[in-house]
Amino acid sequence: MTISSDPKQVTQICFDRINIPNQNKLSVARENGAYEFLPTVLNDFDSAKIINEVKTSGIRGRGGAGFPTGLKWSFVPRNTGKPTYLLCNADEGEPGTFKDRDIMRFDPHLLIEGMIMAGFALDVRDAYIYIRGEFLHEANVLNEAIAEAYAANLLGENILGSGYSMNLTVHRGAGAYVCGEETALIESLEGKPGRPRFKPPFPAVEGFYRCPTVVNNVETLATVPAILKFGGEWHASIGIPNNTGCKIFSVSGHVNKPGNYEVPMGTSLKTLIEDYCGGLQHGSVPKVIIPGGSSTPWLTAEHYDTPLTYDDLMKAGSFLGSGAIIVMDETADLVALTRRLAHFYAHESCGQCTPCREGTGWLERVMKRVEGGKGCAGDVTVLKDASEHMAGRTICALAEGAAAPVLSLLKHFPEDVQTRLAESSK
Amino acid sequence: MTQLFINDQEVDVTPGTSILEACRQNDVDVPYFCYHPELSVAANCRMCLVEVEGWGKPAASCCTPVSEGMKVKTQSETLAKDREMMMEYLLIHHPLDCPVCDQGGSCKLQDYTVEHGASKGRYSEPKRAVINYELGPFVNTCMTRCIHCTRCVRFADEVAGTGDIGVLNRSDHMTIAGIVEGALSSELSGNLPDICPVGALLDKPSHDVSRPWEMTSHSSTCIQCPNGCDISIESRGDQVMRIVPVDGSPEPWICDRGRYVYDAFRSDNRILSPMVRQDGALQSVDWSDAFDRTIDLLKDKKVGILFSSQWSVEGHVAISLMRDALFPDAKVAFDLHRRDMRPFAFEEGLAMTTSQIEAADQVVILGSDLRQRLPLLMQRLRKRGRAGKPVSRIGAMNYRTNMEIGRDALIRPRDWHGVIARAMEQVSELGKTAAGFDAWLGAVSDRHEAGKILADALISDSCALLVGEEIRSHEDAASLIHGVDLLMRACGHAEAGNDGRNLIPEGVNAQVLSAVFADARVSAGDIFAAASAGELDALILIGSDPVGDGLFPSAAKAALQKVPLVQIGSISGEMADYADVQLPAAAYSEIEGTFVNMEGRVRVATNPIKSLGQERPLWKVMMRLIQVMGAEVPVVSLDELRSAVCQHLSALSDAWCVSNQDSALIAPNRNRDAAALPKARTDSFELDVVSRYSMYREGMWARASALLTEAGELNALDDVLVHPDTLAAKGLSAGELVVKSFLGEQCFNIGVREDVTPGVLFIAKRGVAGDLSDVTAASIDGGAV
Ligand SMILES: Cc1cc2nc3c(=O)[nH]c(=O)nc-3n(C[C@H](O)[C@H](O)[C@H](O)COP(=O)(O)O)c2cc1C
Ligand code: SF4
Ligand code: SF4
Ligand code: SF4
Ligand code: FES
After folding, report:
1. What is the ipTM of this complex?
2. pTM for this predicted structure
């Protein structure tokens, strides 16, 4: 592994072995170091040490919320008499995000190893991977890898003679975006409709079947083997304080080389786009950058230099989210873009909360009208009011995500909307 | 206690309380739709937002627990805007058809729109259309008005236990739907319109009939089962339009029987004027003509008096005064469901409150169809079940309960002795015994394994037995109850403060009746036998229908063919065919009166005295009868009557004089010396007969109600049921079969069901198979001839 914080000498954690052919096969993965360190962890580490290393590493959840993983693990109550569950969130539904998919299809054993280690730390007997329904191929790859792991006693009873036992099961979702929200995921895994639960109680205390449960993103869990092998300090030294390690960015939109790029945290947006993604298709600065998946507020050209960290993006008015960077250059029709996103959220709202159920549909219909040249002056206030009062007033963050594009459009590009409205009044 | 500040006011609440509940406890108004104190939290309407200092965004108060030192604000400019927006979101698809909506005037959506909403909505896009669906005879749906608060879904899951309402689809296609097409199979379905905060679910029978502001309401007590729920009777003019539960009473719900019986008040079945039989038909006459005929029939005659337990305490005491004044030797019967009149070790009535039963370590139902009999107690048991507390049951049928019964045993009525004996042996082994154990055990040779369920439950610290009709109506009830009493004493569940001996009574006022009519009481069957044997000259029937109800229809018919009948009551029922005179007495919706429920809870109904016809409160009819028969009238006012009552039951004086009614619980009778030993059976019939109580059909009131009758038809079972093995043993199959009993041979349409005990003939529909109710043993002999 290359250890360097120079973006040119790419340090990679999750993607370190991504290009090795047949890395999804256990024999190949093992030749390349998979499960090498696992016996040491199972025999010489204990729960406290693992959680401590993960805390020291500074890793924050890669699924969207960026919650410190070590801290999350330490919240899990022990000796409750109930089982503790580990759920891997592989729902990857956030528009623009396609990173977990690569880990799962090219290096599934990395995820499995991470889950065994996390499971061991949390005293988990049964772990699940909740995978996006559309990822049929990935689910097949994972299932084959899991079968191989069971056959090699890397899963199941008494793993490698360590006395620790864990089962791992893949569960396919049915295509609902909201099931990526951790409590909806839990409901869905329990066999119920995927509707988020209100919190508290948090899943760490009452999750899957009301038992203590840890939900982590694929990328988060796939980072665990490296953290334990090289140490928390090592991970903490990559990136910048409070924003440590590497992050996979799924870059899409008007760039010449869209794709997944794993870079150390703190690499700037501009570096990523120009040095890695082959630059913009048109012009020298982007018109809009959605930095963390479609649910995050938009950034504009003025933030082109922002370092890609949780903190810097927040300072810039957005979020790192899932690391899905959608780049729009000057050719983009932002009203159409917003309308399309509004459609997505209106379709995906689970329908529980008043503002989200009614607001998402309302926004879509108004945006459709505006885009179709039938808007009126009052629409701007309606769009603003209807989205502002969705955000932060609902059970889950979907509503906030639904409001973000509309609010961003109105904030940064009022003239684009006005032009459409002007066309309407002709 | 957790201390927090609500609008700068310091308040203390129990840790874990939600902000909304903390506000409600301290009379701070927070608007809400989805929250309901009796249901789990859903937190979906988002109307209950408040501000918490230091939090970046408003919090839904219903699902946010309080924390120490929290500073909550319920009013602010931004909250006002939030509430305005919530109303706007909710209204974008709402039809705004308040003028034609029954909910109008008592609708949260309407009220909050006025209070929090903007004057005008800004939604100009198409509105969604929603399909209505069928929710049974009592609930009307208009789903375009639904605000998706899921109260109804939670009610069906958590209270009714039927789970037959659900949520379909997502986003603004989300709809509430009856998962089970057709009838909502709950005896509590009438509560749905009450909990729906809008006009999506409405009361079907009163749909499009009246508006909330046209009605006057008064509080009363439901007499349709011994639970005696507090009810509010809503009427327009002198017509009862609805019956609804009362806020703040022990139960927030009422059952469909108690609610929809109201159409009986104005049914053709009412007796609204004095009637006498002339030329074979009943003719309306004035009071004095009716009394003349009554005098002819009763003066200096030997009479039997049969009355219903559904009258008020004042009515019952007036009956007793009438008997003392006119027929001091007459036998009275008020229970159509008791064969064994020996005193019971513990008499009818509950020793515990329903809350105590809900909280007991163990609850065992002994021979009762509790969901039909006591739907609200059943609902409490369901609540207890959800909290993980066990309920077990022994009985002749796996009666539907809508809950998980922990341990269940099917037995025949003749097995009860063996069940109790088996339990006695088990507890004896643990050194638990009571004086009389050995004598009782020695008289029983059988042992039934179901006794283990009973004994296991008895070992716990607190155990509530719910002794039901299968034991109460048993021919050897006194010995069974003695046996159970011994068990309870042996296990320490018969002491003051920890008395688990609950004998479910047939109706309200059971404790008062056993005190007032202690020695005069006989079995209804005895009165009919005496009449048939020529020992009586006439029968006085006060609000009872022994042909339609109870265990003695054949005996009653035989008796009524023999002697004249003076019928006094509110409902005529099947008795109209037999009555020579009918005197109208006021219905329970029309009187002031006192009722004691099965827990001993006293309720004084404050109905304004009003009447549809010439009916008078029963006590006045009784006093008039005394007067016209030439005796001295003992009381002339309700107050005097109540003083007479206090002689029997001083506990009642508290209820009448002290306002604190809830504290005065009237305890059921205990007869320590009632030591009846088991009797062996002598007949040779191989089947035991058990008859079903249907909440939609039992009692004159229910049968006079078209609404309940309709529901009864939807919920009907085959007339007579047996376990398939019972027929297989005889090489028979379901259909028309001959049943042999002491009444002779009769033909019945017999169906099969797995959930009936083999060896039991279960009479599911008394009206049809009514004549079999007299019977406790029978055999099936073969196909119809
Ligand atoms: C609407 C919505 C969708 C989400 N979808 C995903 C997802 O597809 N994958 C994911 O890992 N996290 C998703 N999340 C975030 C999860 O709720 C949760 O924070 C995450 O799985 C925690 O894992 P981490 O701590 O490892 O990031 C979503 C959140 C919301 C509100
Ligand atoms: S915010 Fe939207 S998606 Fe999330 S729980 Fe509420 S209605 Fe469902
Ligand atoms: S039908 Fe009524 S109770 Fe049920 S979800 Fe709709 S508004 Fe709520
Ligand atoms: S439970 Fe009994 S008392 Fe209550 S409403 Fe129903 S019938 Fe009346
Ligand atoms: S009452 Fe709190 S969200 Fe409905």
Report:
1. 0.94
2. 0.93
